[in-house]
Amino acid sequence: MAVIQEARIEARVSREQKRLFERAAEVTGVTLTDFAISSMQRAAAEALEKHTILKVSLRDQRAFLDTLLNPPKPNEALREAAKRHSRLSRR
């Protein structure tokens, strides 16, 4: 049987904050601990989504896909960079 390991989080809050959190927990019908955990989980998921998911417009999606499917011909700067890379990678 697997043992579930638990970790503890402690936080110091003002009396007003604690009363606010307790009231919110009470009106939603959960314990203060459950309210705090679900609130932190939701906030963490939103923060991670905001910082890890790239959202682009439909126009930008189409431009990106079009460039992948129909790449432009390399210009002189790109050809020179490829030559430099090739020379450096042979060393």
> Distance N terminus to C terminus?
55 Å
- Please indicate the count of domains: 1
Shape: elongated
Overall helicity: 55-70%
Number of strands: 0
Mean pLDDT: 94
Number of helices: 4
Helix/strand order, N-terminal first = HHHH
Unreliable segments (pLDDT under 50, ≥5 consecutive)? none
* Main beta-sheet annotation: none
Q: Assess the beta-strand content as a share of residues.
A: under 5%
Structural class of the secondary elements? mainly alpha
Radius of gyration, whole Å: 26 Å
Structural summary, described in words:
It is a single chain. The chain is mainly alpha-helical and 91 residues long. It has one domain. The chain is built from 4 helices and no strands. The longest helix is centred in the middle third of the chain and has 21 residues, at 32-52. It is elongated. 0% of the residues are buried. The mean pLDDT is 94.
